[in-house]
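User: quick one
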Amino acid sequence: MEPWQLSAAEAAGRIKAGTLTAEALTRSCLERIAEREPVVKAFTYLDPLLALNSARRVDKGYEPGILHGLPFAVKDMIDTADMPTSHNSPLYEGLRQGRDAACVGVARAEGAVIIGKTDTVEFAAAGRRALTRNPHDPTRTPGGSSSGSAAAVADGMVPLAFGTQTGGSTIRPASFCGVHGMKPTHGVVNTEGAKRYSHTLDTIGWYGRTPADLRLVAQAFRFYGIDNPRALTPTGLRIALCPGPNWALAAPEAREALATAGKRLEAAGAIVEDFTLPPPFGEVTEAQLAVLYGEGRGAFLAEALTDPGRLHDDFHDRVNNFQGVSPQRMLWAYDLAAECRKLFDGFFPRFDAVLTPAAAGEAPVGRQDTGNPVFNSMWTLLHVPCIGIPCIKGPNGMPVGVQIVGPRFGDAELLDVAEAVSPVIMG
Amino acid sequence: MEPWQLSAAEAAGRIKAGTLTAEALTRSCLERIAEREPVVKAFTYLDPLLALNSARRVDKGYEPGILHGLPFAVKDMIDTADMPTSHNSPLYEGLRQGRDAACVGVARAEGAVIIGKTDTVEFAAAGRRALTRNPHDPTRTPGGSSSGSAAAVADGMVPLAFGTQTGGSTIRPASFCGVHGMKPTHGVVNTEGAKRYSHTLDTIGWYGRTPADLRLVAQAFRFYGIDNPRALTPTGLRIALCPGPNWALAAPEAREALATAGKRLEAAGAIVEDFTLPPPFGEVTEAQLAVLYGEGRGAFLAEALTDPGRLHDDFHDRVNNFQGVSPQRMLWAYDLAAECRKLFDGFFPRFDAVLTPAAAGEAPVGRQDTGNPVFNSMWTLLHVPCIGIPCIKGPNGMPVGVQIVGPRFGDAELLDVAEAVSPVIMG
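Assistant: Done. Structure below.
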């Protein structure tokens, strides 16, 4: 077994035990990248010598951090002090920022080896798509906007990678690529240094191959309760099986994934209960769009004024309020979201987690359509933690996942549930 | 009259008419700065040649922007591509970022001459204070955290300057320095590139010498309704005279300012009505602190891990949750804020504006105590627009202001009210 094949948690264990170095792991990942990158195209920036030097510096460190020696890829709309941050936009080609984004700073301080930048939909929002291909079928999208990060983790190029989620940009690619992904409670991880689209929605997320990998990153960010994990088993866990208000948009394989996950959990002893969200939740998907477009008006104003000719029309559309979102509509959306957040928290501790689709189906063919975010965007607006878990293969052999969702700030508890249910859901 | 003595709106008029150039105005401001800076100490970075070159570039421009040729100072925790951004922190001394913060980008694209960086409380939050003195009395603080920006506008060094407000960092210094200040609706101005303290609270604000100056900046940011100003007179305006839940903390001169503003407005024909906020508002000040400290936990984590020795203890306190804010407490604060935001919007259009204290009294003596933010912090959490207006002189001859407050997204309407009431309130 090559080091690149190890999960983050496994690799961290070997590094701690002294049987693996940051340098050896980074070198193995770089070899995997060199082999696969011509097909997968996950990276926008990769300097092998820089990465190896970062790894050697970690190996020389006095105090091992939580992410000690683990190669970590960064979505290319999150700033890095030692690499350009291009946002997949001609406006920022080769842009060098003077300091790391807050999330990168934390990962680096905890010993992560920042290995390179991964391709993204332009500004993690619209416009140009990533060049990245789905490692399971290069004719298909890995999803977006965290395209390169999801694909890189799925393909063994790196054990961990940062994405972001404003609509469905972390959890949907996790489903399409067959990896675990986490979108934590909004606001817990500082988004400073990541491109702004919507301050109400933008959330830093990450990918790993197991729930234990996701937990390592949550530990680095000092999540509430993260240091008191509960060793749970599926037996007796109360799971709300929630097709949600957008069920009509789920392809057969997405429906099958949810049903399969439910059956597998029930067979493992969990108490799985059909769960319908009450009426106000039916409008949360629409409210997310109002917030997204309303806040998008200000998000790209500087770019639209500074370099209009090179800014994609999609962003001029947002600045020009192409959806005609009124302040009244935004207030409706803000106030509905606030009401539903409180309501949703109230479903706990009656349930340990809500189980719901992670994507509308398999990854679409081509590069342009990165998939429908509709099974993610309402949770993003609700600010609740979501963990994507692979489940079945669809009719084309592509991965199809599900997600579990918890109450606001219930991230650590949801990780406990994920560790218990992930092996069952994966079958 | 020297050009530096012109308000932003006056200077903009002359530049438009061709009787003043960006270069001449910038040169005049630089002369004023050279004369006064030894006493006021408003700037952390100022390169006269760079500023003059920026002004000449504006003079050569084809299309005049909304802020064409107006010198604009930037609080030194907001990124600028051509000047360092030091955050008044030893961690970021001389830091060079690769691109402008979003607000700076907009101002620059609209023709503003970014003239220099102004001193701030460390990270606009805690720790080290600015060196800046109050231009009205150098033994006193100009307030914080936007210390240098408020003082620079008050002292004629620049017609316009960016500040920020997370507690009371824009409106309180406006009161202490006797200038107009605006804290717009939260989220309307993209905070990207300004240091994060609290994503729920951080708001970009600005200073000018008149409401018309404030309006220019709001125009640059394409505020809803800003292009349809109403020419109002004080006659018939419905003003809610609102001491607010923290009235007990108001010094006699703050009480006198509110009473005087109310009387002057009444004498000018406004309908001034005593107004008491209903009970849930009594807890909003406490809720703001819960959000501030709760979100501050993540805001400074990267700094605390990366360079603990040089980070002020105040920030370690926040990372270590020195106030012991629990997730439950944060949820209480978030949900209370959401409830009160909706309630507050409901007071309009019954009123045209809420009139309330801008600060607890005159600027304190010394540099350490930048004043109590308690008359600002609840409005910051409520996300509503606030405009600070100078009113009286206190017992020590220092300025004491008031503020008018509107509903969320009512910024343009509040500016209309400010233009009508400011000359009356100033007496």
